[in-house]
Amino acid sequence: MSTKQKHYLVGYGSLLSHDSRSRYSNIFCPNMPIVLEGWRREWLARGLADLQTGLGVSQIESAQLNAVLLPIEQISAELRTREQDYQFVEVDPVNIQAAQESALTQTELNNIRANPDNNKIWICANLHKEQADIHYPINQTYLDTCLVGCLDLAIDDFAADFIQHTHFWQHGWVNDRNNARYARAANVTLQQQKQIDKLLEQQQVLQYRQDTDR
Fold first, then answer.
1. What is the pLDDT of residues 186-208, one digit of tens each?
2. If you placed Cys at 149, which of 16, 39, 86, 128 could pair as Cys (CB 3.0 to 4.6 Å)?
3. Is residue 98 pLDDT above 60, yes or no?
4. How far apart are CA 119 and CA 71, in angstroms?
5. Helix H segments across 115-188?
6. Spatial separation of the C-alpha atoms in residues 152 and 10, rounded to whole Å
7. Given a cut of 70, is residue 3 above it in pLDDT?
């Protein structure tokens, strides 16, 4: 008797936000916070269709990133359209650990490792690797969506770790909060915006943001 194959997606960017992924991509599932070894998060994913630079990843042995593990039914046509500037790359579950000993996450990881043939973990690796510029900026509303997802997990330092383990902040980052350009922006309150800006300042990257729109 065959067992139905299960699929999981590593959400390391805007998929961190339950609000964004449920409203815009119909992905409804619990958050399972993880730390993934051997991958680095980078502002290098050039979005040709939406004229922005999003988050992407590179395989680097010494790197790590925090994320959420999302159980999905399949890599659907809708998901492929959402991630049209990415390819789905399989991740070895041995490189994933539960963040802060999350019981739900650890149980799920144990099940995955016990049945590797029936459980596939995927990460979206960007097809185009180019730094942001004025024509393909990093939009603050995209970043807000990522970080409010981190904050919603209520895990100590999870949002700070996101910032710390993300690279290439130096170019093309604009504050579009008054004229949102990110199509799948989460609902973010003014208080959360202030909290996010404080974290960005503490991590010494806020200096790179242009506080006026293009």
1. 999 999 999 999 999 999 999 99
2. 16
3. yes
4. 10
5. 140-152, 158-164
6. 17
7. no
| Residue 77 buriedness (CB in 10 A; 0-12 / 13-18 / 19+) | exposed
Task: Determine if residue 173 is left, alpha or beta; phi over 0 gives left, psi from -120 to 50 gives alpha, anything else beta.
Answer: beta
The answer as to whether 97 is a domain residue is yes
Residue 96 has pLDDT above 60, yes or no: yes
Range of the domain at 146: 7-208
* Strands (DSSP E) found in 74-150: 86-90, 96-98, 119-126, 138-139
Q: Number of structural domains, the chain?
A: 1
12 sits in which H/E element: none
Q: Which one, of 43, 58, 35, 38, lies nearest residue 13 by Cα?
A: 43
Residue 205: closest CA among 140, 156, 151, 154: 140
Q: Return all residues near 44 (Cβ < 8 A) that are at least 6 apart.
A: 53, 56, 58, 126, 128, 129, 130, 131, 168
In this predicted structure, what is the pLDDT of residue 168? 98
What's the pLDDT score for residue 38? Answer: 98
CATH number of domain containing 129: 3.10.490.10
pLDDT score recorded for residue 196: 98
The answer to whether 140 and 177 are in contact (CB under 8 A) is yes
Task: Please check whether residue 213 lies inside any domain of the structure.
Answer: no
1 part of a folded domain: no
The mean pLDDT value of the chain amounts to: 93
In a domain, 23, yes or no: yes
Confirm whether pTM is higher than 0.90: yes
